[in-house]
Design brief:
The protein has an 8-stranded parallel barrel, surrounded by 6 helices. It is globular. By secondary structure, it is α/β, with parallel strands linked by helices. It has helices at about 30-45, 75-85, 100-115, 130-135, 145-160, 220-225, 240-250, 275-290, 295-305, 340-355, 360-365, 375-385, 405-420, 430-435, and strands spanning about 5-10, 50, 60, 65, 90-95, 120-125, 170-175, 180, 185-190, 195-200, 210-215, 230-235, 265-270, 330, 370-375, 395. The structure holds flavin mononucleotide (FMN).
Length: about 450
Amino acid sequence: MPKQIKLAAHFPGVNNTTVWSDPRSGSQIDFASFEHMARTAERGKFDFIFLAEGLRLREHAGKILDSDVVGRPNTTTVLAALSAVTSRLGLAGTLSSTFNEPYEVARQVSTLDHLSGGRAAWNVVTSPDAFTGQNFRRGGFLKREDRYQRAEEFLTTVRELWDSWAPDAFVGDKKQGVFVREVGRFVHSGPQFDIEGEFTLPRTPQGQPIVIQAGDSDEGREFAAKSADVIFSRHGTLEDGQAFFTDVKRRLAAYGRSYEDLLIMPAATFVLGDTEEEAHEYAREIRYQQVRPATAIQFLEQVWRRDLSEYDADGPLPEVDPDPDAEPLTWGRVQHDKDNLETARKWRALAEEKKLSIRELVIEATTRQQFIGTPQQVAHTVNDYVQSDAADGFVLVPHLTPGGLDEFADKVVPHLQELGVFRADYTGNTLREHLFSQ
Ligand SMILES: Cc1cc2nc3c(=O)[nH]c(=O)nc-3n(C[C@H](O)[C@H](O)[C@H](O)COP(=O)(O)O)c2cc1C
């Protein structure tokens, strides 16, 4: 039997992927938008809907970055509301292990799992920047190693709390008047957390909610291999995906885990058309909407760490090099390429080779995995990627909110079902069943 594909829907948050200026774009905050996308994902039998988290508005050169879509409601509140308008779809929320406390996160995610009948997932992120940390009591004091140390102990502690009630602790015997046999006591003593008491909720419908991890360094991959059910990655192209897949799956054995215990789901965008040419033409239009001239200059400034506002986005790259010693100009966005001079060198070579303007270069350099084509072609390509171990499935990132997923659910999913690589209907009720019992 071919590998079964996992699918998730990313509710677009900030990022220039989202084309908010399109006439069909709706609110990023109204519940109606979340409801629309969740219902679409459930109609398409998706595994889960996914919310990212950013706890400070991004800034560029001292101003709010308004090319990003501003505004992000609280994750667990949104997911709790979605649990009432869906019945099978998994509900995945990102909550930082750097800016929260284990007791509070354990309680929120456990509550969601209870409310939704076993559909909750927690995406553990370490949130890299001190800039965001300024919003919190302890500020951005954690170095990378310390963030992952905290994340590991954070997750261990949360799992201890989730497991603290025995499976048969809840009795509810009205005749005998016995409500619980024994409430869940916990004691956790470690370098990061020293807490004890009773956890306020019994074991959840899933036993333990699903744990997702998003973080790319060696520490991040090791953390995922040891503890996560799913990795949300940015390695969506075929070769890059395969390299990431091999690297991460190889790490599992050291923790006594097998290949199927950890699912790899990269972010991916898609553009559909009635013909292949139409889809490519539409994809091009979208890229130009996503990278407007001002956005292109901002991207360049992020790498160059210099004011480049005098440059023409339709002209050539600046002759000057990035300033390696300058403070970053962009705050609140994860910068994956750490060496600015090296990135600039690569970008220059690419621009020269293909004769690209600044805007064209940014479009070329920042385009992530895109599945482009007719619905049938896209279904085949997605399937080829999964069968050739570039991924176990994808977290789809539509460029329109909230209707951007509709076409995929209605037109691509049926082809995947015909290929026998995606469920015709849900066979289980919990997210754990969707992900692991096929
Ligand atoms: C695909 C991906 C998605 C991420 N999403 C978020 C997010 O929604 N919120 C957040 O605070 N951090 C997010 N992060 C940041 C990571 O949790 C982590 O702090 C960062 O990537 C630095 O760690 P690393 O060097 O291990 O990648 C994301 C990272 C990746 C790779």
